[in-house]
Amino acid sequence: MTPNDQYFLGYSPAEQQRLERQARSLAPDSHLLFDRIGIRPDSRAVEVGCGPLGCLEILSRRVGPTGSVVGVEINADLVRLAREYLADNKIGNVEVHQGDAKTTGLPRESFDLATARLVLVNVPEPERIVDEMVALVKPGGMVALHEADFGYNLCDPPLPAWDHLLGVLVDYSKLNGIDLFIARRVPRMLRAAGLLEVQVNPIVHAYPVDDPRRTLLLHFAENLRDRILTQGLISEAEFKETLAAVKVRLDDPATLVLGFLFIQAWGRKP
What we know:
The chain is an alpha/beta fold. It has one domain: 3-Layer(aba) Sandwich (Rossmann fold), CATH 3.40.50. About 40% of the residues lie in helices and about 20% in strands. The chain is built from ten helices and nine strands. It has helices at about 15-25, 25-35, 55-65, 75-90, 125-135, 160-175, 185-190, 215-225, 225-230, 235-250; strands at about 45-50, 70-75, 95-100, 110-115, 135-150, 155, 195-205, 255-260, 260-270. The strands form two sheets. Strands 3-2-1-4-5-9-7 form a seven-stranded mixed sheet. A two-stranded antiparallel ribbon has the order 6-8. The protein is globular and about 55 Å long. The protein starts with 12 loop residues before the first helix and ends with a strand. The model is unreliable at about 1-5 (pLDDT under 50).
């Protein structure tokens, strides 16, 4: 993982497509979050790590024609996809900048809301992103995060191959400075950054056999295959065997699959 490629899952075409699907599948949860925060129609919002879509369209509708939204994304291909989507759908109150979520270069204290969804769980030094988001909002403004905790991702009946694969991903993340259990830390991270009135909403989904999110663990492992093997965390033969065993279990509709624990947390800047 190079300094310019710190995103946990990389930027392959398959990952870009997954991010687009993710934006749509998580839209109901994001609507719930923004309902609870309450976004004024004339607000100015920023989404860091927006990817090819993120919450940009949702925020666009929330702030209305008199408000504005800025998306920040480090990967040029994802910036291009986001801009194409906005142009194709004639969404004129959103602009997307290429930049690092840790140092956006945007004006300080110029937004009413700063938000990020599933960004901290994918990058090293997540505290720097929280600090940047706090710096971007005005006094009285809100910072809102939606993060994942891999510790609650499970299948039943239990499967050793599932636990082994999840353990390999956790080992890989630790070696690269990434915390796959960060969601549980987000509320205290917001408090440590000086935010007040921090609130929390936990979310867990069960994924039936026809839900593409049911195979997320397999997708993540396949996406990281070369990195995992290069770092010697598992042999290629064992990797293939483990993935095959997990796939067989996931294809069984009687298998219960619970997704990651999502934590939505938000607070107000004094």
